[in-house]
Amino acid sequence: MAKRAARRLASVERSATVALLDRVQQLRAQGRSLVDLSRGEPDFVTPQEITEAAVAALRSGRTHYSPSRGLPELREAIAAKLLADNDVVVSAADGVLVTPSAKHALYAAFTSLLDPGDEVVIPSPGWVSYAAMVSLAGATPVPALLDPATGFRITEAVIEAAVTPGTRILLVNSPNNPTGRMLDAAELEAVLTVARRHDLVVISDEIYEHIRYDGHPHLSPAAYLRENTLTVNGFSKGYAMTGWRLGYLAGPADLVAAARKVQEHSVSCAATFTQIAGTTALEDSQPAVEEMVSAYTARRALLVEGLNFLPGVTCAAPEGSFYAFPDISGTGVPDGSEFAEWMLDDAGVVMTPGPAFGAGGRTHVRLSFAASEQELTDALERMDKALRSR
């Protein structure tokens, strides 16, 4: 057979972040001393009460299939959380789909809503898997290039310029990975205006919602455009549960039902005992989340101050998430991919190249401060030495 893979995979690269993790593991196996600031997961242990809830569930025999849409108690907890925290009204019965990760919630949404020829507008820079997922669904990702000079602000003009008659979905992510930006009221209004004008479905990825700084409010599009918005969220980032693989999709019953078909014929359901743990997370673990955010706040200050001290590097303080996204265009190595490669080879500091997040990140790199203060200090010292010896 000459053809071994589907043609739609031709435009899909490997996940840049997963590939980088593989390379880090290979280099460490070879004895390289590395400081890894590419991590996309909290470095904290899952809060104890969540783990204990899962262990109790396992010991009591909760090891079988759950309903495909999710356990009723978790769907009720999710609906209550959305109403209390986000002013978003959804039906626990048919407006919530519990998924094995927020990533799968996104994949199920794209797969269930998109046909060949459809387009999805994705603000750029944006998370590395958005465009790939759209392509895997047989549709076309269209970047809306955000301007670094404005702090990557979303404007009506930028989004409108990317919309065509084939546009079906407008994607937003706040707090944003990789920029750390959060939607403000004017940006949200721009999103809502364009979505209403063209009758678009808005998919709002809110996975970093709990990690915010300086009192920045979290704005959910579904609170203002309920009938056309799907909200994606989960437990990985806020509750340090990346390995548990638990997320959810919430919104209008007909759109959630479509995504449920994808889930039923792919993964069936999320693991039952993780759903029980997720219910505990929503109901009992907010103090632990606040402790983690307090630690992130101190690390953010250390990293941003240190980056702005480096020659040729400028970095705005992120408003949310645990990423800094510095501009390295003044270093003499203005391409983020080349800069990241240089820092890995010469300084032993692992960071994610900005271009991995789309054309909007060309002159940037992403550094995670889900790392100890000692690791952050070590990384900054290594980068400073490399930059000043160039």
UniProtKB/TrEMBL annotation:
Enzyme class: transferase
InterPro entries: Aminotransferase_I/II_large (IPR004839), AspAT/PAT-like (IPR050596), NHTrfase_class1_PyrdxlP-BS (IPR004838), PyrdxlP-dep_Trfase (IPR015424), PyrdxlP-dep_Trfase_major (IPR015421), PyrdxlP-dep_Trfase_small (IPR015422)
Cofactor: pyridoxal 5'-phosphate
Secretion signal span: none
UniProt keyword list: Aminotransferase, Antibiotic biosynthesis, Pyridoxal phosphate, Transferase
Record-linked SUPFAM superfamilies: PLP-dependent transferases
Residue stretches making up the Aminotransferase class I/classII large domain: 34-382
Gene Ontology MF annotations: transaminase activity
EC number of this enzyme: 2.6.1.-
PROSITE patterns: AA_TRANSFER_CLASS_1 (PS00105)
Gene3D superfamilies: Aspartate Aminotransferase, domain 1, Type I PLP-dependent aspartate aminotransferase-like (Major domain)
Family listed: Belongs to the class-I pyridoxal-phosphate-dependent aminotransferase family.
PANTHER family in alphabetical order: ASPARTATE AMINOTRANSFERASE
The protein, known as: Aminotransferase
Organism phylogeny: Bacteria, Bacillati, Actinomycetota, Actinomycetes, Pseudonocardiales
